[in-house]
Amino acid sequence: MTDYELHPQLAADTVSVCAWPLCEVLLLTDANYPWLVLVPARPDLRDFHDLSPDDMVTAGREISRASEALMELFEPDKINVAALGNMVPQLHIHIVARHTHDAAWPNPIWGVAPPLSYASDALGTRLTDLRRAFG
Amino acid sequence: MTDYELHPQLAADTVSVCAWPLCEVLLLTDANYPWLVLVPARPDLRDFHDLSPDDMVTAGREISRASEALMELFEPDKINVAALGNMVPQLHIHIVARHTHDAAWPNPIWGVAPPLSYASDALGTRLTDLRRAFG
């Protein structure tokens, strides 16, 4: 058992939006998609079923809260939720707003379109919008 | 509001393993991967956050139960859990046992390897093993 620390690859690929009771809320810096990553701030988690029963209840609530904010802000056609972790072993939950006109539709997003950088003002605006939507 | 009915595409791609308090438990008939699909037996669900709070708690429990059975039976390197639904709009949750030697590793499984049919005896054995592991 070690203390919780965000995996360096996740730290490199994201910016912090806020912290919730269970999860760090991160924005993945790929402007192709409104793409959040929730990371439960608990040590030594790999798979979704490694969460304690109480933390799993909180995770469900936080997944909903993130999804509903993406719905409100981006009016997507679908929300994709996934805990894969084949590349980065620390448990992290992708929550992605998908549109039928996006770069990967109808496929999953991973490995399809090259990551697209945010313009710095667009990144700032997105963070502000997300934090406001989270209330 | 209509009654719950399994989407015909999911019915075509799977065989039934059993029914739990919330979800139908299905085996996706692609022998490349041990691949379960959980479908909450509620009408008119599309996204994970459409589940009621109570059903979400049950969903977490059933995702864990399915994941732990896959761990026990197949000793995978990783469990992938995902609710995507870009192709089939009815809420369904993929739970896939991943191995570092499987056909898609380390990528997500969707759209990588052509589906591989189960031999009929292998399919029967797999269903028996799953039902036994579910207790």
What are the key terms here?
homodimer; alpha+beta; HIT family, subunit A; 5 strands
Structure description:
Chain A is α+β, with helices and mostly antiparallel strands. Chain A has a single domain (8-134), classed as HIT family, subunit A. Helix content of chain A is 32%, strand content 22%. Chain A contains 3 helices and 5 strands, in the order αβββαββα. Chain A has helices at 8-13, 53-74, 120-134; strands at residues 14-19, 23-28, 35-40, 78-83, 93-98. Chain A has a 5-stranded antiparallel sheet. In chain A, strand 1 and strand 2 form a beta hairpin. In chain A, helix 2 (53-74) packs across helix 3 (120-134). Chain A is globular and about 40 Å long. The mean pLDDT of chain A is 97. The interface between A and B is medium-sized, with 34 and 34 residues.
| Fourth-tier CATH superfamily name of chain A | HIT-like
Bulk shape of chain A: globular
> How many beta strands in the DSSP annotation of chain A?
5
CATH architecture of chain A: 2-Layer Sandwich
Largest sheet of chain A: 5 strands, antiparallel
Give the radius of gyration of chain A.
14 Å
Q: Give the domain tally of chain A.
A: 1
In quaternary terms, these chains amount to: homodimer
Mean pLDDT of chain A: 97
How far apart are the termini of chain A?
34 Å
- N to C succession of SSEs of chain A: HEEEHEEH
The helicity of chain A comes to 25-40%
Class of chain A, according to the CATH hierarchy? Alpha Beta
CATH topology of chain A: HIT family, subunit A
Strand content of chain A: 15-25%
- How many helical elements of chain A? 3
Largest interface: A-B, 34 and 34 residues
What strand line-up does the widest sheet of chain A have?
1-2-3-5-4
What structural category do the secondary elements of chain A indicate?
alpha+beta
Low-confidence spans of chain A: none
